UniProtKB/TrEMBL annotation:
<dbReference type="InterPro" id="IPR052698">
    <property type="entry name" value="MoCofactor_Util/Proc"/>
</dbReference>
<feature type="domain" description="TRASH">
    <location>
        <begin position="253"/>
        <end position="291"/>
    </location>
</feature>
<dbReference type="InterPro" id="IPR027051">
    <property type="entry name" value="XdhC_Rossmann_dom"/>
</dbReference>
<dbReference type="InterPro" id="IPR003777">
    <property type="entry name" value="XdhC_CoxI"/>
</dbReference>
<dbReference type="InterPro" id="IPR011017">
    <property type="entry name" value="TRASH_dom"/>
</dbReference>
<protein>
    <submittedName>
        <fullName>XdhC family protein</fullName>
    </submittedName>
</protein>
<dbReference type="Pfam" id="PF13478">
    <property type="entry name" value="XdhC_C"/>
</dbReference>
<dbReference type="Pfam" id="PF02625">
    <property type="entry name" value="XdhC_CoxI"/>
</dbReference>
């Protein structure tokens, strides 16, 4: 499997995922240093970073990486194992079903670029778009009041016009940051004329941007993008696209007690009409043997 081609496809589709790479492995693990895989939002793993017990730990850690938007070093160890050099700052996962060996897997988030939708063609609007591209954000031009559904931030810099319609559309699109370029008095007047709830009004930043004493169009554009960067990095503005995020289903392996993510490849049995899930085929065989006796 050519993961680089798949990564490009996911990036073009704006689908978040995690790149998992084995950086250290000790026999008898089935994976080797350099093995890699992509972990999708629903827990699907494409590629190879170890057996199914390891995949369970990787899926759980990948969800954390996507939530935080930060890389993570995962140490996967068998139970009661201490013959693997310590790595400060690593997250440890103990797999009771592993037959031996130990691994370290580096997980890197691959998140779609933040989308900044801009309404208007004023010098401020142009400056916002320019600075957004400089920090690798995706810029979308708003036509009328048609706000893209995956917009993380919406900036209205028309200096008049039907600003209320764009603000309403941005609120309905669940944009995390809505900025109206206007003086404090005019901005408040625009919002006063709209039938907004208190939480909705609180989501609209006007004047938009950080208060840095900006006067020129370039300075105002810079202050707005700086405020969006602040919101993204602080966690105030979600980095994942505004889409229905699947919640991975989990179950407890009745043999080893490990919590497993239920996926198409997860070993399972149907016992008396009930699904029973396992971390690996070994636990499934042990369960079958015990209940066949």
């Amino acid at each position: 499997m050519d993961l680089s081609v798949r990564e490009t496809q996911l990036h073009e589709e704006r689908r978040p995922f995690v790149r998992a790479t084995v950086v250290r492995a000790q026999p008898p693990t089935s994976a080797h240093s350099g093995d890699s895989a992509l972990v999708l939002l629903d827990g699907t793993i494409e590629g190879f970073v170890g057996g199914q017990c390891t995949e369970t730990s990787v899926r759980a850690a990948a969800q954390q990486v996507l939530d935080r938007g930060e890389s993570l070093l995962l140490r996967v160890l068998p139970a009661e194992y201490d013959d693997f050099p310590e790595t400060p700052g690593a997250t440890i996962a103990v797999n009771p079903c592993m037959s031996g060996g130990a691994m370290e897997i580096f997980l890197e988030p691959r998140l779609p670029p933040t989308v900044v939708a801009v309404s208007g063609s004023s010098p401020v609007a142009q400056a916002v778009a320019d600075f957004a591209r400089r920090v690798d954000y995706t810029v979308e031009q708003i036509r009328g009041s048609d706000v893209p559904r995956d917009s993380a931030a919406v900036i209205i810099a028309t200096h008049g016009g039907d600003e209320a319609s764009v603000i309403r559309a941005a609120l309905d699109a669940d944009a995390g940051y809505i900025g109206l370029v206007a003086s404090p008095g005019r901005g408040a007047a625009v919002l006063d004329e709209m039938d907004l709830t208190a939480p909705e009004r609180a989501r609209v930043h006007t004047p938009a941007g950080l208060d840095v004493g900006a006067r020129t169009a370039a300075e105002i554009g810079l202050s707005i993008i700086a405020d969006i960067v602040r919101a993204v990095r602080s966690g105030e503005l979600a980095r994942l696209p505004k889409q229905a995020r699947p919640v991975p289903r989990t179950a407890v392996d009745p043999v080893c007690g490990m919590t497993v993510t239920v996926a198409e490849s997860t070993p399972h049995l149907v016992v008396a009409g009930t699904d029973v899930w396992f971390c690996c085929p070994g636990c499934r065989r042990a369960y079958q043997k015990e209940h066949a006796a």
